[in-house]
């Protein structure tokens, strides 16, 4: 906005949690402010039909006719353009209305424009962005963002966001940011710099380039190249028809690269433990220290330095090359890295426009004549050149080239088929016999291609190892199939011998040597079938690789989720075990001076309990009977401390003893029931554990007669760890309920049929 606003409106921000801004033709700028008010700057202009080359700004007086609608309903403030930008009294003008809004940082917004750009700067909260023809630019912002542009670019800088950003025909550029982001583009390139967190990107037909990425990074492109530098964390990259070049400085859990028809070059940290699997036409690798496994030309599988992170490199039809990074990973590298600042981020740091009253204030004491204020206008030539240049930048040259070729050959082919078909069914045509010969020649070559390709795929292809040998055998087999069909036609010709002229034209077309000269027609009818079968076979291989890739990726994702779930379960148990130990040691400490014998007995029971629990630390599940043994041991320890103040009852429905459940599912709840329930009363404390079955569910009910639950259970009762564990293992099939009425209880329900899946 390099002009003064047409009007400025200020609204008190008290009670407003959502702001919706909508325009048809214009930009929207959203800037965070520390003031407790919302300031709306309106920039309106119009072009007259009589003179489209001139753009005039609209004054505040003109806006009084009702072009802008600002209204508040409950907690939502709506700022919108009425009548799609046209006034009732002026249908011969084209209006453009842009907004710049200053608002408190934590207000949620919804921004919509049809033709225009959207800018965000210094914003915190949940933002939803929509533009049909325009760019989306986000800088210095935090929170959750959902954005979509149909034909524009996306730029994100200096942000900590979680969200989903996509564009249909533009490029994506993300730098100096962190968070969890999913970014897609249908026909553009993706460039990523200095990002940490979870990042998922996808493009169809574009290239992907990233540098200095740490965390979890997954990317895919159809037909483009992938280049990743200075990568740390978990990486998954896949391309169809392109090359992959990756420099991995440190790998946490996995590095999976796959290319169909392209080469893979990787720089791996071979000084760390890796589980390596590389597959390609040729696999080149340096000397691998402490390697155990299989290593031959085209395939490597084994462990390096005892194994560790999973590394899978697969190229279908390409080579795989492994090398060592040019420099070692330095943990302080991120801090020392000089961040690059881009001009568009600086342009978003905009100060507020002055008030309207400061536009044309004249000091009466001055003797000089003030310069008359000129209405703002722009020549159409400048804006047209800028708009045309932006439109060209948004077009993908590769897409334009392929579209041109497709349209050219499609129209040419359809017209040729139509013309030839009409001539073929015209017996009075001078070329009727020749048309029949051409039709027979095309039918012969087409059938030979189809027959040879089907027979080759069904009966020959699986016996060939080298990919190049498949194409050579296919070409030779197609040639002999075509010759066999011609021989069969020659036999029919000799048997029929009707003297038809079309046979003369046919043999003239199909013959390579005609009158001691090389026939161009015969050469084409011989070479085109060879080229056609190779192209069809290549596409068949790609489709086969795609199916195999989908199944392999599903398997890889399943293993990844399994590893991730197991790691998170181990982390949850690591939080529970020290908590139980601290409580038990505190109980023993309280009895050392008052009753040393009980303290000694409690120590022995605690030793037995931890020997039982840590002896199977590599498992994530055990039977209900084993879980109840832990609960009984714990309750017996606590009963020694509380004496007659604590009684417990365990009721298990017969037939449920051997059902598998997650480890430490009941013990933390029983532990917190004592700490926050029984310990708060002076006598007659009771804990009751009931386990029963309801159809396909196992129901665990833990009851205590202590004080009622507090409203906030996240801190005292530790139910978050149990809820997280149930979500990791069962998803939405399990539930955790809290009853806080006369019968205080915590109820857990888990499905029976999936309990065996947690035994990993």
From TrEMBL:
The DUF4097 domain, residue ranges: 165-322
Keywords on record: Kinase, Membrane, Transferase, Transmembrane, Transmembrane helix
Signal transduction histidine kinase internal region domain boundaries: 567-646
Pfam families: DUF4097 (PF13349), His_kinase (PF06580)
GO MF, any single term: kinase activity
Chain segments annotated as transmembrane: 399-419, 439-459, 471-488, 522-540
InterPro entries xref list: Bact_2-comp_sensor_kinase, HATPase_C_sf, MFS_trans_sf, Sig_transdc_His_kin_internal, Toastrack_DUF4097
Keyword Transcription regulation carried by entry: no
Domain of life: Bacteria
Protein name (database record): Histidine kinase
Species the sequence originates in: Emticicia soli
């Amino acid at each position: 906005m390099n002009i003064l606003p047409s009007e400025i409106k200020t609204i008190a921000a008290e009670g407003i949690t959502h702001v919706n801004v909508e325009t048809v033709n214009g930009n929207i700028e959203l800037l965070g402010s520390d003031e407790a008010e919302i300031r709306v700057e309106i920039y309106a202009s119009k072009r007259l039909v009589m003179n489209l080359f001139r753009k005039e700004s609209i004054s505040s007086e003109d806006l009084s006719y009702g072009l802008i609608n600002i209204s508040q309903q409950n907690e939502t403030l709506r700022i919108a353009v009425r009548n799609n930008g046209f006034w009732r009294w002026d249908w011969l003008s084209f209006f453009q209305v842009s907004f710049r809004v200053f608002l408190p940082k934590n207000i949620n917004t919804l921004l919509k424009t049809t033709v225009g750009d959207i800018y965000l700067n210094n914003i915190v909260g949940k933002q939803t962005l929509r533009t049909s023809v325009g760019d989306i630019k986000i800088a210095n912002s935090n929170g959750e963002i959902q954005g979509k542009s149909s034909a524009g670019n996306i730029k994100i800088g200096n942000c900590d966001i979680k969200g989903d950003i996509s564009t249909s025909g533009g490029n994506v550029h993300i730098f100096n940011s962190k968070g969890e982001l999913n970014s897609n583009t249908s026909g553009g390139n993706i460039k990523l710099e200095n990002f940490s967190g979870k990042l998922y990107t996808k493009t169809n037909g574009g290239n992907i380039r990233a540098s200095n990425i740490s965390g979890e990074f997954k990317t895919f492109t159809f037909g483009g190249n992938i280049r990743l530098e200075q990568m740390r964390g978990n990486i998954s990259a896949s391309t169809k028809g392109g090359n992959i070049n990756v420099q991995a400085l440190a790998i946490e859990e996995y590095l999976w690269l796959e290319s169909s028809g392209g080469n893979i070059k990787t720089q791996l940290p071979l000084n760390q433990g890796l589980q390596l699997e590389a597959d390609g036409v040729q696999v080149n690798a340096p000397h691998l220290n402490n390697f155990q496994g299989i290593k031959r030309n085209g395939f490597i599988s084994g462990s390096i330095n005892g194994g560790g992170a999973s590394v899978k490199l697969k190229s279908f039809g390409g080579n795989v090359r492994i090398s060592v990074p040019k420099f070692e990973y330095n943990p302080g590298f991120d801090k020392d890295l000089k961040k690059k600042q881009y001009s568009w981020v600086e342009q978003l740091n905009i100060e507020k426009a002055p008030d309207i009253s400061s536009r044309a204030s004249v000091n009466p004491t001055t003797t000089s004549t003030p310069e008359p204020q000129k209405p703002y206008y722009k020549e159409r030539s400048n804006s047209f050149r800028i708009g045309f240049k932006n439109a060209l930048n948004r077009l993908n040259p590769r897409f334009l080239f392929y579209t041109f070729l497709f349209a050219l050959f499609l129209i040419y082919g359809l017209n040729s088929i139509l013309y030839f078909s009409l001539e073929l069914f015209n017996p009075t045509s001078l070329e009727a016999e020749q048309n029949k010969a051409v039709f027979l020649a095309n039918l012969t070559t087409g059938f030979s291609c189809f027959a040879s390709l089907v027979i080759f795929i069904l009966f020959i292809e699986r016996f060939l190892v080298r990919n190049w040998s498949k194409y050579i055998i296919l070409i030779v087999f197609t040639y002999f199939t075509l010759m066999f069909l011609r021989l069969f036609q020659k036999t029919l010709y000799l048997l029929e011998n009707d003297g038809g002229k079309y046979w003369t034209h046919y043999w003239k077309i199909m013959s390579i040597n005609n009158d001691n000269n090389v026939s161009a027609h015969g050469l084409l009818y011989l070479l085109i079938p060879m080229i056609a079968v190779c192209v069809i076979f290549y596409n068949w291989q790609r489709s086969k690789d795609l199916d195999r890739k989908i199944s392999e990726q599903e398997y890889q994702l399943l293993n990844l989720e399994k590893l991730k779930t197991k790691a998170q379960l181990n982390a949850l148990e690591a939080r529970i075990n020290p908590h139980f130990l601290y409580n038990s040691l505190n109980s023993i400490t309280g009895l050392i001076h008052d009753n040393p014998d009980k303290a000694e007995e409690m120590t022995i029971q605690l030793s037995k309990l931890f020997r039982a629990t840590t002896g199977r630390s590599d498992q994530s599940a055990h039977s209900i009977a084993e879980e109840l043994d832990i609960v009984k041991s714990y309750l017996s320890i606590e009963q020694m401390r509380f004496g007659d103040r604590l009684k417990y009852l365990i009721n298990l429905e017969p037939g449920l003893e051997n059902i598998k459940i997650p480890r430490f599912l009941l013990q933390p709840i029983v532990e917190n029931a004592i700490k926050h329930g029984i310990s708060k009363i002076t006598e007659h404390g009771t804990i009751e554990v009931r386990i029963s079955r309801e159809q396909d569910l196992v129901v665990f009910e833990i009851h205590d007669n202590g004080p009622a639950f507090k409203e906030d259970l996240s801190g005292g009762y530790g139910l978050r760890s149990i809820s997280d564990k149930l979500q990791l293992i069962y998803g939405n099939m399990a539930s955790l309920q809290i009853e806080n009425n006369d019968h205080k209880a915590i109820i857990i329900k888990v499905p029976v049929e999936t309990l065996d899946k947690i035994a990993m």
